[in-house]
Amino acid sequence: MEIRQANHGEFNHILQLLKQAATRIKNTGSTQWAHVLEGKEDQQLLTHLLNQEVMVGIMDNEIISVCYLTKRMSDWDCNLWGNRSTPHDFPTYYLHKLALADGYQGKGKADTFLLSLQKHMKQKYPEGSTIRLDCMAEKNILMDLYERVGFEFVARRDNIQLSDHTAPFNIYHWCSHVVNEEINSQS
User: Fold this and answer.
1) Residue 57: strand pairing partners
2) Among 71, 90, 120, 129, which has the highest number of CB atoms less than 10 A from its own CB?
3) Could you tell me the CATH superfamily of domain 2-186?
4) Shortest CA distance to 49 belongs to which of 73, 22, 20, 15?
5) Which SUPFAM superfamilies would you find in this protein's record (predicted)?
6) Domain locations in the chain?
7) pLDDT digits (tens, 9 = 90+) for 133-169
8) Phi first, then psi: what are they for 114, rounded to 5°?
C-alpha cells in the first residue's frame, strides 16, 4: 500500500470515505461519528488538509484508507494524554479518524495501512518518532488491531466526556527508533 499526504483536491473523495465509515459506525448503534454525517466534520477535514495533516492509503490508484496525523495536541488529546512525556523526545503525532472505504473491512487493509504508516514514519524520522491514538475501551476490534500492529497499551481513561454521555477510553502509542549497534556493542 502506498502511503502519502493527501492534497486539498481530494477533499470530496476523503469526505465520502469518512461518511462511509460514519454510516457503518451508525449502523452498529453508536453515535460516535454522527457529526461526520451531519456535515460537522467538513471544516475539520479542510483544516487538516490545508495543514498537511491527512494521510491516505492507496491501492490500485484508489484511496482506500485515511487518517488525520497531527503534530499538535488537540483539546481532546490533552484531556486523554495529560502531560505524559514521550520516549526520547522524538517527534510525536496524534492519529485520529482512521477510516477504510466501503468493501475493505475485514481484509487486513487497516493492518496494512497502519504498518505502512509506521514504515513511512521510520523513513521520515530515522532517529525515531511516536504515534499516539485512542479508542473507546469497548471497541475490542480496534484494540486488537492496534496491538496486532505494534501499538502498546498505555492507560485506560475512565469517564471521558462525549457529547451525550461519558465512556472509558484506552490510549496507545507506537514508538520507533534506530538503535546504534556500534554503541550498544561497546557498552
Assistant:
1) 3, 65
2) 129
3) Gcn5-related N-acetyltransferase (GNAT) (3.40.630.30)
4) 15
5) Acyl-CoA N-acyltransferases (Nat)
6) 2-186
7) 999 999 999 999 999 999 999 999 998 988 778 899 9
8) -65, -40
Give the torsion sign (CA, 111, 112, 114, 119). Answer: positive
What's the pLDDT tens digit per position in 166-184? Answer: 899 999 999 987 543 333 3
Q: How many residues does the chain have?
A: 187
Beta pairing class for 62-70 and 92-100 = antiparallel
Cα radius of gyration (the chain): 17
- Measured between its terminal Cα atoms, the distance across the chain in Å is 39
The rounded percent of the chain whose pLDDT value lies above 70 is: 94
**Please, which residues have CB within 8 angstroms of residue 139's CB and are 6 or more apart in sequence?**
none
Closest of 90, 91, 88 to residue 72, by C-alpha: 91
Q: Round to whole Å and give the CA distance between 141 and 125.
A: 29
Interstrand relation of 129-136 and 92-100 (parallel, antiparallel or unpaired): parallel
Rounded Cα–Cα distance for residues 183 and 90 (Å): 19
| Rounded Cα–Cα distance for residues 68 and 80 (Å) | 17
Share of the chain above pLDDT 90, in %: 82
Q: Which three cell numbers stand for residue 86?
A: 514521550
